[in-house]
Each structure stands twice: as C-alpha cells, then as structure tokens.
Amino acid sequence: MFSSRLEQRRKVRRFALLVAVTVLIAGIALIAVVAMQGFDLLGAAGADRLPLGLAVLGALGGLLVLALVAYVAVRVFSRVE
Description:
mainly alpha
C-alpha cells in the first residue's frame, strides 16, 4: 500500500520513539531510586526537602532534553545513505 521509502521512514520513526521512551523510562527509574534514598536520608536528619525536590525537577528536565536528543539523533543518522 505504501511505498518502500515511506515504509522505511515509518520504521525509523518507530525505532526513534522506542529509543527515546527507553531512555526516558530508564532515567525516571534511576531518578526515583536516587530521590527515594535522598528523601529517606533527609527524613532521618529532619532537613528541608525543597532543594532535593528542585534537583529532582531539574533532573527530569534534563532527562526530557536527553530523550529528545536521542530521538533526533536516531532520525538524523537514519537519513545518511
């Protein structure tokens, strides 16, 4: 139904999306583990949690940028013929 070139583009888009989602899921899991350890440590010390919360938000923002870069990199390198 579709041309082979269009079908190849669809496959590349799907693969790029798979790479980006994999990076995102692995990063969120890693951030969650580190954040839980940090919150446990701060809870024992009775310290302020705001700086750690801001660090988690910053890490999530950086992770979103990294996932977008991974998506774009797969798309760009797939065009090299």
